[in-house]
Design a protein that fits this description.
109 residues, mainly beta, Immunoglobulin-like, three-stranded antiparallel sheet, 12 strands, 40% strand, Ig-like_fold, FCRL5 protein
Length: 109
């Protein structure tokens, strides 16, 4: 999903989630895509705060629950994405919402 930039505007790496619902659910065949400036194919992935590969592809299919972030040279670390392994979950769209917006919730069992 898309996350807003930090207040300083320094953070430009984004971690997109497909399908675009949060929290992401492991049994949903989740794909994470790291977007940012810098060299394509030089993405460093982190899982649960630990380096989980370096200079790899900019996207992959998730097979384990956990908290994922990515880093692109020159554009920094992305906000985290949580992938859960739950039997029931209440999800919201990953898009940015403003006060007064309509919100669709999804209850997944």
């Amino acid at each position: 999903g898309w996350c807003p930039l930090s207040p300083t505007g320094a953070q430009t790496t984004q971690l997109l989630v497909e399908p675009p619902w949060m929290p992401a659910v492991l049994w949903d065949r989740v794909t994470l895509t790291c977007q940012g400036s810098g060299t394509a194919g030089a993405t460093t992935w982190y899982k649960d705060g630990q380096r989980w590969g370096q200079e790899g592809p900019d996207h992959f299919d998730v097979t384990e629950n956990g908290t994922y972030t990515c880093e692109r040279p020159g554009s920094g670390l992305s906000p985290p994405v949580h992938v859960v392994n739950a039997t029931a979950v209440l999800q919201v769209p990953t898009r940015v919402l403003l006060e007064g917006d309509s919100l669709t919730l999804s209850c997944r069992i």
